[in-house]
Design goal:
115 residues
């Protein structure tokens, strides 16, 4: 544990009783704060908006309804032509009908992409 002095201006001057408390205050709390900020940055509102697209994976059909999937797909409407966006409800219906009789359902988007 580094020495502490009455007035420190250029580095951390933590008033701690033992080394564990010193490192907890000077390093670990800042690490947790940075970790929380990174989680908020990576999982923002946009991810919450598009999460219902997970309902297109055949094993997740029961978790999301069609309206939430369509709302999530509207985030990407600039990436598709107008004709594709107008018939997306029918495409979802056909996709779900295709998997009704199957017993071996894909559990991830990569597996479903092959079909």
């Amino acid at each position: 544990m580094p020495r502490t002095c009455g007035r420190q201006t250029n580095r951390v001057n933590v008033n701690a009783k033992d080394p564990e408390e010193y490192y907890k205050i000077s390093i670990f709390i800042q690490f947790l704060d940075n970790l929380i900020n990174q989680l908020h940055y990576r999982f923002d509102k946009r991810l919450q908006q598009i999460m219902p697209l997970e309902g297109l994976i055949p094993t997740n059909f029961g978790y999301y309804d069609d309206t939430s999937i369509l709302a999530a797909a509207s985030v990407y409407e600039n990436d598709f032509s107008v004709s594709m966006m107008s018939c997306r409800k029918a495409q979802i219906f056909i996709w779900k009908k295709q998997w009704e009789s199957e017993t071996n359902l894909p559990g991830s988007a990569v597996e479903a992409l092959q079909h």
